[in-house]
Protein 1
Amino acid sequence: MDCPFLVGERLYLRPLDEVDLDRCMRWVNDPELLPFLMRRTPMNRSAEREWLLQQGRSEANFSLAIVLKDGDRHIGNAGLHGIHPFNRSAEFGILIGEADGRGRGHGTEAARLLIDHGFRELGLHRIQLHVYAFNERARRAYEKVGFRAEGTEREAYYRNGRFHDVIVMSILESEWEAS
């Protein structure tokens, strides 16, 4: 294992590093993944490198590599962003970049590790996320972890010639501890 930060049953989360740059850049520019990401434009190497380095410097934003124990293979990233110390809140994000890593419960395991860390170690009270209404697979995965839909940003995302709703989901510390 290469510098594990949070360790689960089948995977671990570790800090992102410059060796991850090409892989991360491939994922954020993948035409199959782009419709599910918040960005619309391709990411160049210098911008992706700056984002990656920023993750290691920020107290308010951090992303971790999702690495399978079997083969020590980096398959995605997960993070907490916009960590607000007074409101004790953050926004959760995850990307399983490797196609063969999707649909196998790796995202769920990584999410549980990171959410638990957010509540138990960072003292968060609330973790939220935004998911496009058409991304039903992600919505089901978030519900499995304990997130609840709390609102809809109507027609807030424009893609492929039409507007789509964005669902706001959250989980509170008390809900996490009760699960």
Note: The mean pLDDT is 92.
Protein 2
Amino acid sequence: MPELRKDPIIGRWIIIATERGKRPSDFIVDRNHVRGGFCPLCPGNENTTPPEVLAYAPPGRHANQPGWQLRVVPNKYPALVIEGEIGKEGEGLYDKMNGIGAHEVIIETPDHNESFTHLPLERMTQVFMAYRERLVDLGKDDRFRYVMLFKNYGAAAGASLEHSHSQLIALPILPRMITSELEGSLSYYRYKERCVFCDIIRQELDQDVRLVTQNEKFIAIVPFAPRSPFEMWVIPKRHASSYVDADGETLKSLAAIFSECMRRLDSCLPNVPYNFVLHTAPLRSSSLEHYHWHFEITPKLTMIAGFEWGSGFYINPVAPEEAAKFLRNADLTEQPKP
């Protein structure tokens, strides 16, 4: 029988449509990614992007020249622009402000054909280090309240360039999803005097039915009420509300479990389009006892149609316990390079 499941953090309801139950092989994965041709993110084409704001490269390399291992540049076609003042104003009952923010592209590898999933661990760690560096730097700008950091892989997930990259958008307001998480986790904390994410970690380790993998510092689970088949959350075991507080060893451990999660997903659903998003505390906030930073990885396997838009519910044809089992049993014979 189908189940209605409630997300314990924001109260979102999910329909687990068990009568539509599917195995990984039952999904038709759209592997039409993005068109080839000229790539502005490849080495040698640095002059086609705005000047870099961060680069990891050997000593002696000149800025905006080849030889980099990772490069961060402003988006050439930004959703928000960094110059100007916020300029909040009202128009009757409507509120508006200038589109002030920052929109950057993190180019994760110089190799056009190298995927994020198969990056060597050292280079994947660099990606997570770059995320932290940009969050710290953008946090110095008082106009910004939040940085949304995300990756789109595959055309179905919103990627417009084939070269492996992720993005960030700094915002002058808090996104509704983050506000809902903060409010939901604070309500839970006031009632139980515990962090809901820490309780999730304890229960998932104890029940061991939605656990995908773990290491010394992180746990990876299929959440109790997932929006998408094979959705995964990667959560630090030790309570921490802000990603910027993660030290080098923590980011190495994050890269190790993230690499394993992506390879497990790729083994179950080869080359599946996906998004991942960092959920972290607002910029410049003090340590929050009720909130816990984490990444959410969401494969693009189902459509958002009329019922979902109208109700706010998601329909998931794979029970999270079954998805976790498939992911745990995935073939990982190809190990990541150190």
Note: The chain has one domain: 3-328.
